[in-house]
From TrEMBL:
SMART domains: CRS1_YhbY. Pfam families: CRS1_YhbY. This is YhbY family putative RNA-binding protein. Residues 22-118 form the CRM domain. GO terms for molecular function: RNA binding. Gene3D superfamilies: YhbY-like (3.30.110.60). Keywords: RNA-binding. PANTHER family: RNA-BINDING PROTEIN YHBY. SUPFAM superfamilies: YhbY-like.
Amino acid sequence: MAFTERAGTAPSGAHSAAPQLAVLTKAQLKKLRSLSHRIKPLLIIGKNNITDAVLRQADSTIEQRELIKCQVLGESEVTAEEAASDLAEKLGAAVVTVIGNRAVLFRRSHRDDIEHIRLDG
């Protein structure tokens, strides 16, 4: 497998139901950043911030594409960095980069019917 996963630790030894976060090397992040230049934002976060509907859309989109770009609109109460961190934690994804009002996330898909992003070469 081209990436490793790190289990999150919950306070006081409690078990967390949150997904595991992907941990990427610098080389893998560099490759994903270069791939992200070609994609348009598929997830828009507006004045309602990160809702259950946004999370469902993000999960579905990242499962289909593995690499997604998010845009945080000006009327949102969260910054792109806060949104990226929150989405990554809830989706078990890695934050690839945050620039301005846009963020890029990566998570390996479990689907067999898509072409997976190769990170090992």
